[in-house]
Design a protein that fits this description.
This protein is mostly loops. It has a single domain, classed as 2-Layer Sandwich (Herpes Virus-1), CATH 3.30.40. The chain is globular. The mean pLDDT is 95.
Length: 74
């Protein structure tokens, strides 16, 4: 199951699990659409491809909660 990280690692933008617009690599590094575009869809951490992250229905958050730890480094 995906961790569904709550923010963009590059700019800190909120990325709710139920909303589209997040991009991830195979290690689940997470970026917003604007940052993924600026990075040419390549993860700066591992060099892997950034691809659309699927959404998680809000109805499933209680049983399978998204991550709460923010990864943005100011």
């Amino acid at each position: 199951m995906l961790e569904m990280r709550p923010d963009c690692e590059r700019c800190g933008t909120d990325l709710p699990a139920e909303a589209p617009g997040a991009f991830i690599c195979s290690f689940e590094c997470t970026f917003c659409a604007e940052c993924a575009d600026a990075l040419d869809d390549q993860c700066p951490n591992c060099g892997g491809e950034l691809t659309d992250r699927p959404t998680r229905a809000r109805a499933l958050h209680a049983k399978h909660p998204p991550a709460t730890q923010r990864r943005h480094r100011a």
